[in-house]
Amino acid sequence: MSQKQTLTVQDRHDDRGDIARIRLAAPAGEALPEFTAGAHLDIYLPDVDMWRQYSLCSDPAETGFYEIGVLKDPNSKGGSTAVHRLAVPGATFDIEGPRNHFPLAEDAAFSVLLGGGIGVTPMIAMAKRLHALGKDFVLHYCTRSQDVTAFADELAAAPFAENVVFHFDDQAPEQRLDLSRDLPGADADTHLYVCGPQGFMDWVIETAESAGHATPNVHREYFSADVDLTGDSFEVECAASGITVTVGANDTIAKALAKEGIKIEVKCEEGVCGTCITDVLDGEIEHRDQFLTDDEREDGDQICACCSRGRGKLVLDI
């Protein structure tokens, strides 16, 4: 069960690359619930009426504040621009979490952290935790240019600075990320973590798995995804409520059910956060999400109702 709290913006630092580093604390200064590396917060943005997820980049050992990094993306649905507008010192936000769908395998012999752009945020928390544990790791941080590389000063001054490798697209080819050079050989005790733009992630994941890294050892977290919500119409039967609806070609399961008074909680609307996971009793699923694992998809008993679809008819346990 996610913890609900109202937190106050304690501090804000506008870093390179139009990234706001925001510290959130309890209004009375009490200790915050602990979190594990890889966790995120769900933040409600009332003026645009949406929830958005932001990875924690602060030290998991820190209980006085949570820190997130938010890229102002003019091409987003409005969440990031709302955060940049609203997150001034003293402002309050309703929060759920921390929740962790991207946990760190702390017993791994070697960890490779690969962050593309703002996708570095969970990697920073992971690096802090791995350093505290005395574990062997490397953090590859990829950006378009040094001029847009947020967190650079902090990472350069960190006690694990020698474990951090910066890669800038506008510099010499040998300085850029080269997976044939920078990925270690496949090993059961080596774990990879990747977060960033979808193209970057797909490239890293496909290359790693083609090189023999086992899928369970290649951990991934999408902070956004290009998802096609369209498709042929299909029916959804709600076994518990006895209602059947038709999901149109440009509709989603969650929206179609909401029109009939059946609410499925939705936050990301892109199939990346898992909030809307719903049990499926029968029917063929057309998965469009980036949340479920391949094994979970093969089981055929769960669906992301914000984006995935069915063929013919689905029966949901709702």
Report on this model:
With about 325 residues, the protein is an alpha/beta fold. It folds into three domains: about 5-100, Translation factors (Elongation Factor Tu (Ef-tu), domain 3, Beta Barrel), CATH 2.40.30.10; about 110-220, Nucleotide-binding domain of ferredoxin-NADP reductase (FNR) module (Rossmann fold); about 235-315, Ubiquitin-like (UB roll). It is about 20% helix and about 35% strand. It is built from seven helices and 16 strands. The chain has helices at about 80-85, 120-135, 150-155, 180, 200-210, 255-260, 295-300, and strands at about 5-15, 20-25, 40-45, 50-55, 65-70, 90-100, 110-115, 135-145, 165-170, 190-195, 220, 235-240, 245, 275-285, 300-305, 310-315. The strands form three sheets. It has a six-stranded antiparallel β-sheet with strand order 4-3-6-1-2-5, with helices on one face. The chain has a five-stranded parallel β-sheet with strand order 9-8-7-10-11, sandwiched between helices. Strand 10, helix 5 and strand 11 (about 220) form a beta-alpha-beta unit. The longest helix has 13 residues, at about 120-135. The mean pLDDT is about 95.
